[in-house]
Design a protein that fits this description.
The chain has 389 residues and is mostly helical.
Length: 389
């Protein structure tokens, strides 16, 4: 099956070349960061997490969202999801790789990752986050590839794969829950110190991940002969609708709790994020853009007429993806460090150009892996003999 990735049109190879070029630029700037240090980024002593950790948080959610197509197909026998479960699992694989690579570039010395293996610390949430992410990555590779091989041979999926599928479902929930615990377990950071953190993470994951999958399915329909079917896309769209409504509801709950209670320690980071404080307002236009895009998407998705129009559906999905990236990216990470616990001053953070280019290289690597996996999967699906049941 691998040979399918080695053949393709000029557009396919042009896309591969573009992704390799962007990845190469990212590697070049990462080498500069390796030699110079994290001073080339916008991070500082006061804001020690930035774009890299923001994307770790966001793409863990994209990875976890694969459960939204795996669960209906394997647990509830929704046959219309049969064509896309492998695509969902491969999306999870590429998303986890983006997550892990984002952590690597965030470390001043990547060799420090070995400390997690050589000197494990079970009382560390980060230790468990790496464990569940690694297991989830391994399971999705094994399940996706084995299922694709069975489809390629026209055979049923091997019986031993089913238990792995059932294990992957709660594991998908756990990878984002444990990531949320990294934040809400830090009691000294009032912005993150909320029991709603894990539910918000899951709601945003089940909105942004399936929204991205819809966009990918529409792109595949345009550039290949593969068609997931309108029924499957519409069912995913309904999942996205419920998830984004839940996410906005959680935002309203936090607004009420923080601003009605008036607790200063909790109030200040929220005021900074949403309205700006003492002239510090770099994230204000970003977070309001996120909320506006989320509300726009809800309007477009709740109305069946607009949701069933796939051009409008694509706009809604892009709006959700961007909105959740802002909300769960810089909109989540940065306010947790503001104001400075050391001095009480407002040290704002914005990513630098080298930092952005390194992260774009990480994205390109993930998309490159996704492109190759999808090329193999679509080629198999176009040639596969229907499996016997």
């Amino acid at each position: 099956m691998i040979e399918a990735a080695l053949s393709g049109s000029k557009k396919y190879w042009g896309w591969i070349a573009f992704l390799l070029a962007v990845t190469g630029i990212g590697i070049a700037f990462y080498i500069v960061q390796w030699n110079v240090g994290l001073t080339i980024t916008g991070m500082s002593r006061d804001v020690s997490w930035g774009l890299y950790i923001a994307n770790l948080t966001f793409f863990v959610g994209v990875a976890a969202s694969a459960v939204m197509v795996v669960l209906p197909y394997y647990l509830h026998n929704q046959k219309e999801f049969g064509k896309i479960t492998i695509l969902g699992e491969f999306l999870a694989v590429s998303a986890v790789i983006i997550c892990v690579t984002s952590v690597v570039v965030d470390l001043g010395q990547p060799a420090r990752l070995l400390n997690l293996i050589l000197h494990p610390s079970p009382n560390s949430i980060l230790f468990w986050d790496i464990i569940v992410l690694s297991l989830y990555l391994l399971l999705n590779i094994v399940i996706g590839w084995t299922a694709l091989d069975a489809e390629h041979k026209g055979e049923p999926v091997r019986p031993w794969v089913k238990p792995l599928i059932y294990i992957s479902i709660p594991l998908a929930i756990s990878i984002h829950t444990v990531t949320a615990f990294i934040y809400c377990g830090i009691g000294g950071r009032p912005f993150w110190f909320t029991a709603l953190m894990a539910p918000r993470f899951l709601a945003s994951a089940f909105a942004s991940g399936p929204a991205l999958l819809i966009l990918l399915l529409l792109i595949l329909r345009k550039f290949t002969s593969f068609d997931a079917g309108k029924e499957a896309i519409q069912k995913i769209a309904k999942i996205v609708t419920y998830a984004i409504i839940t996410m906005v509801f959680f935002i309203i709950l936090e607004f009420f709790t923080v601003f009605y209670s008036g607790s200063p320690h909790h109030l200040i980071p929220f005021e900074y994020l949403w309205f700006g404080v003492e002239g510090a307002s770099a994230l204000v236009p970003w977070i309001w853009t996120s909320l506006i895009l989320a509300c726009l998407a809800i309007i477009l998705l709740v109305n069946p007429a607009t949701r069933k129009n796939e051009s409008i559906l694509a706009v809604a999905c892009v709006s959700i993806f961007v909105a959740m990236w802002i909300d769960k990216g810089l909109g989540l990470v940065v306010p947790g460090f503001i104001p400075s616990q050391a001095s009480g001053e407002y040290f704002e953070y914005m990513p630098t150009m080298p930092e952005i280019l390194i992260q774009l290289g990480v994205f390109a690597l993930g998309v490159l892996i996704l492109t190759v996996l999808y090329k193999i999967a679509i080629t198999v699906k176009e040639k596969a003999v229907p499996a016997s049941h």
